[in-house]
Amino acid sequence: MALLQDFFHLFFPQLCEACSSALYEGEEMVCLRCRTKLPTTKHAEHPENMVERLFWGRVPIEKGAAVYFYNKGARIQVLLHALKYRNRSDLGVLMGKWMYEEIKCGGWLDEVDCLVPVPIHPKKKKIRGYNQAAILARGFAESSAIPLYEEALLKREHTGSQTKLSRIARWENAQESFAMNDLELVKGKHVLLIDDVITTGATLEACANVLVKEGQCRVSIVSVACAFQ
Description:
With 229 residues, this protein is an alpha/beta fold. It has ten helices and six strands.
């Protein structure tokens, strides 16, 4: 079987999702060179980092972090694009595992009771086939063994893409768009809210407000990337 796989890969090599170079044995979806060049933030090692400061005065959170800096055209954008638009849910699971590896240090997760992904509207989920934040959360859950509640929140309004909206428009779109779907899953717990990219923070703010106000939850936030430095 191993010889057959080697023969197949000789003519149809597996390629890195970030740079399209052939993968070596032991590399999974992303080559080691690209993985090591992803711009890590080290937020988990620094209290009051830029993600935590983003939410000051907006919604009470315990901790916040993004794992990588997001830059247009860079490797992290290519990987996230593959996850969201090229049906690479397997890549999302892998990136969720990376998220855990980057923030597990320093007791960051010691008091977290459960994981909750930012939901997407059912119409968008039907088109894409999955919620990318939930896929990331699955990878995180596999590595951390922290319970994952994918259906704790729901998005009740279809707001469409927000990539070209202003900060104020994003905030207005996000408010009142989210609701509790299963209160008993998370009531009174410390929830780690998971998303793919933080830009203005409006979506995460809206989700965190629901968890805090309706669920009496403590909330921490982590994303794959943040679009600010």
